[in-house]
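Annual report, structural modelling task.

Input specification for the succinic acid complex:
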Amino acid sequence: MQTLNLIAGEWVGAPTGATFPVTDPATDDVVAEVPRGGAEHARAAIDAAAAALPGWRALTAADRARPLRRLAELMVEQRERLARLMTREQGKPLAEARGEIDYAASFIEHAAEEGKRVLGEVIPASRPGQRIVVLRQPVGVVAAITPWNFPAAMITRKLGPALAAGCTIVVKPAEQTPLSALALGELSIDAGIPRGVINIVTGDAAAIGEAIFADARVRKVSFTGSTEVGRKLMVAAAPNVVRLSLELGGHAPFLVFDDADVDAAVTGAIKSKFRNAGQTCICPNRFFVQDGVYDEFVGKLAKQLQTMVLGSGLDDAVSIGPLIDDDAVAKVRDHIEDARARGAIVRTGGEIVRPGPGLTARFCRPTLLEGVDASMKLSVEETFGPVAPVRRFSSEAQAIELANASPFGLASYFYTRDASRLWRVAERLEYGIVGANDGAPSTAQAPFGGVKTSGFGREGGHHVMHEYLDVKYVSIGITEPNA
Ligand code: SIN
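The model returned the following structure:
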């Protein structure tokens, strides 16, 4: 296991020698100690990324794609080792961790190919003797600030396209889950990515963040995390007018219409809500079910939830791992208690437990709440836990109004078998991502991102390349023989 930081191709500790522990949220065992870097450490990483930039930028897209593809292959080859490491530091069930390694690798593979399709333009000129040419060039040094809920994929969906575009990068992984990031760094060296192109620093988020935004060589910051932090980064980005991509919080609605395939809706609800113990930005936070199928949907969902197994993600039988830390537990507990105090009824779950000897009391039973209304905290704030609050609706217009009554706009879901309704509702939902009869829309070739307070910028698809490219207009004057 790699526990040091990667700067300019060397494995280094923090300049002060300070470290902090990475713990397993299922057991509180210390998995490793990693460097507690600060501003000086971050500047060294930026120096390295800036020094590596001219050489990397000058390569052809195909020459950049080759080591990137190798990195993706190495990740898949070492899936089991990487997945176990991820489960230990993050807690998610092994099956999900294995899936995340493949998902993470797919962003690199996809971006490596997209890098070859970064096209310029020649635009018809407005006068004789002029040629209008548009170049797309790498923005320069990029910083990626990534969360703990997807310790590998949230890095690769930034790093892949940044590198494919010709940028170099400084990655600051979440304090809870730095080990997956450092493991990717190791594989990047084995894959032949030149020194300094990828730099990884762990430690004091505030000091590292300040150093990143204070350094005019960093031309782009891509962040995944809360809307609260995203707002602060927008302020921090102002002095140097740094470009941002912000993938922020969500509060996804999940609509089930009377004409839905209810079994498919239940399967979609399990996939979207209970993945990673409900700790994803695209998790549904509000279920709205039409009167005609309400009892069937709620009954079937409750039955499924009662079959889910809590425990250490390292146990293959487990489907729900721990919440990441005690703050997360406090928030989930508060949301459940607040809802109960305001009249919600716990149909199943509702408890935070210690599911076995040697395990922490950070496991929330998959929870289904009925009798929910708009006054409850979980109707307006992201819960980030395995809690499904369900409300009824009676008409399509009401469902759309309820679904859009949120400042967030990341993901949304609905189930219907009516093709006209499918188009109408998809067009009217004010969200960047719509799963129409699909509880798992995320994939590397599609644009992922939000509107409203869920942020801006897209990850995945050909769209992501533009996040790491500047547009340069070149107006060329030439001599025409007859002019
Ligand atoms: C997230 O919710 O933070 C990412 C989920 C995904 O990529 O599917």
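The longest helix spans residues 94-114.
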